């Protein structure tokens, strides 16, 4: 073959190979034609912002429970003089910082934030496990002393059991690193509190 034509053939092959590589992209997948939509992630994939449906369910459920828990804590001072319960209720204010963090995350995720709990109102929308209904709230509010202690601790045990279940689900299925870290810390704290609540419930039931 004439040397001139051999160089032309080789050069043409190189140009063709370069064009094919450019079309495939660095990952070997053909690039989308100009103007075509980018491939969409699967429905189960983490959405923009690093969160998924499990994170939303965790934060919304926890905020609902913490809203009612705060309202329950506010009842204690006027219904019992038992020092252990009054101290426990005062410590529940430590949970409010976590609740505010979760509310901020939901706003950043453009997800609805549960409304503040209104004691005695018609059952709130989206009321889930662990939430005391308005009849239970009304009954508890009628008690004082030991009867109140029993009703309050029983309701708070349900709250904590529901929160523990939410934390465990978040740790299994959540995508948000912040939400998972909070769930891990909450799980340890709520389990210790639940143990204390059950101990009181047993002691006060026997007396």
Question: What is the overall silhouette?
Answer: globular
Number of helices: 7
**Average pLDDT score:** 79
- Fourth CATH level, the homologous superfamily of the largest domain: Ferritin, core subunit, four-helix bundle
The main pleated sheet reads as:
none
How much helicity do the residues have?
A: 55-70%
What share of the residues does DSSP label as strand, in percent?
under 5%
> Do you know the CATH topology of the largest domain?
Ferritin
- Supply Rg: 29 Å
Oligomer: single chain
Quick summary:
This protein has 207 residues and is mostly helical. It folds into two domains: 1-31; 53-206, Ferritin, core subunit, four-helix bundle (Ferritin), CATH 1.20.1260. It is 67% helix and 0% strand.
Task: Walk me through what this model shows.
- It is a single chain.
- The chain folds into two domains: 1-31; 53-206, Up-down Bundle (Ferritin).
- The protein has helices spanning 3-24, 53-79, 83-91, 96-108, 134-141, 145-173, 177-206.
- It is built from seven helices and no strands.
- The longest helix has 30 residues, at 177-206.
- It is an all-alpha fold and 207 residues long.
């Amino acid at each position: 073959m004439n040397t001139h034509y051999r160089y032309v053939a080789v050069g043409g092959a190189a140009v063709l190979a370069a064009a094919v590589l450019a079309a495939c992209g660095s990952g070997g997948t053909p690039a989308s034609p100009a103007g075509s939509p980018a491939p969409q992630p699967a429905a189960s994939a983490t959405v923009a912002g690093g969160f998924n449906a499990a994170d939303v369910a965790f934060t919304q459920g926890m905020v609902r429970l913490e809203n009612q828990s705060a309202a329950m804590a506010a009842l204690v001072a006027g219904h019992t003089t038992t020092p252990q319960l009054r101290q426990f209720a005062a410590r529940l204010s430590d949970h409010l910082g976590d609740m505010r963090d979760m509310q901020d995350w939901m706003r950043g995720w453009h997800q609805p934030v549960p409304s503040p709990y209104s004691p005695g109102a018609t059952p709130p929308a989206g009321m889930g496990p662990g939430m005391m209904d308005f009849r239970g709230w009304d009954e508890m509010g009628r008690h004082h002393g030991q009867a109140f202690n029993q009703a309050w601790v029983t309701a708070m045990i349900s709250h904590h059991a529901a929160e523990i279940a939410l934390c465990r689900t978040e740790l299994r299925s959540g995508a948000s690193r912040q939400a998972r870290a909070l769930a891990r810390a909450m799980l340890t704290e709520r389990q210790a509190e639940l143990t204390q609540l059950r101990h009181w419930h047993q002691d006060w039931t026997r007396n």
